[in-house]
Amino acid sequence: MENQGFLDRYFKLSERGTTVRNEVIGGLTTFLAMAYIIFVNPSILSLTGMDKGALITVTCLATALGTFISGVWANAPFGLAPGMGLNAFFTFTLVMDKGVTWETALGIVFLSGCFFFILSLGGIRERIADCIPLSIKIAVGAGIGLFITLIGLKNMGLVVKNDATLVGLGVLGPEVLIGIAGLFIAVILEIKRVKGGILIGILSSTILAFVFHKVEMPASFISLPPSMAPIFMKLDIKSAFQISLMGPIFSFMFVDLFDSLGTLISCSKEIGLVDKDGKIKGFGKMLYTDVASTIFGAMMGTSTVTTFVESSAGIAAGARTGLASVVTSILFVLSLVFAPIVGVVPAYATAPALIIVGVYMFKNVQHLDFNDLKTLVPAFIIIIMMPLTYSISIGLSLGFISYIIIHLLTGDFKALNIPLIFVGILSLVNLIV
Hints:
The protein is mainly alpha-helical. The chain is built from 20 helices and 4 strands.
């Protein structure tokens, strides 16, 4: 009873109308909704040449650390993990397309976190976010959704390179069919609102791969976690700090900005942390948690760590305080012993997770004003150019520039402001460089 009394006082359980039991259930639910990141993040980042075993450990620990800080310091039931889309941008745009080393890419993530911290001082970050048009905010999420969906289809082998048409349908071999089966399993479970549906889809595809001898059974299912040494503190900040890489730094920062603010605002409303004036209680601590997690994550060896919208699953199950986040954090630490299983999961088994998350991110296009071409065209450019150029930063830059040009030429100067013009200049520099 004494321990429960401490938990009640520290996490304000009674004040928020919850119990230890509700928080444990909520924390477990958030873990199940987020656990797919243990498989997906190493699968994506390892394509850069980073050690996959080390990535498994870092993914679990970075997620556990960010989520723990959210729980103990901000007293918020939010899970944080390497962001989807941002890990793809890290791998496919920076390293594989631009030829940046993964060490330099980690330096870029670190610097974006540092600049993010500066923007968080005195509420600058929120004011900049308020100056960005809603249509662009919506388009960024939708564009990233299409971008990671394309990556998922490519990893599955369903979409392949075609010299005549750029892309085409792949051969429906065993790997592709296994990936499709996992996708349908995950989709049906998500429709039925089964907790951990995406995770079950990944595991189902992996089991089918074992059955059809497409992957080898690990020697053991549990073991001590792989060492972080191959990637820990290997970030190259000096190489990242150059004009030609300001665009990627800017992209990481703004995508994280839109992503984290949107998630924090929507989830805070669900748990009753928004007062009569629309202000969120403890919002500053939540923002700093997000920033600190990105900086620590880069030092550990992973792409941008951000607040996960999957936290809403735990909130729906009853989570109201940071105690739920502590539970989620502990479960991610315990997951470290299952590294042998994670290490053999093939890319086509994790592909369904990318596709489903892409669907969730894309669905917000319903909030665009389809009768206003001045906002719709820039939004459409962002959405379509991110997957077609295989770059979040290029899609984002083209969207900002087109928004400014269209409103200038139509004389709608009221829709423009100094921060937006500044972002437009950064976008132009990014394209030129």
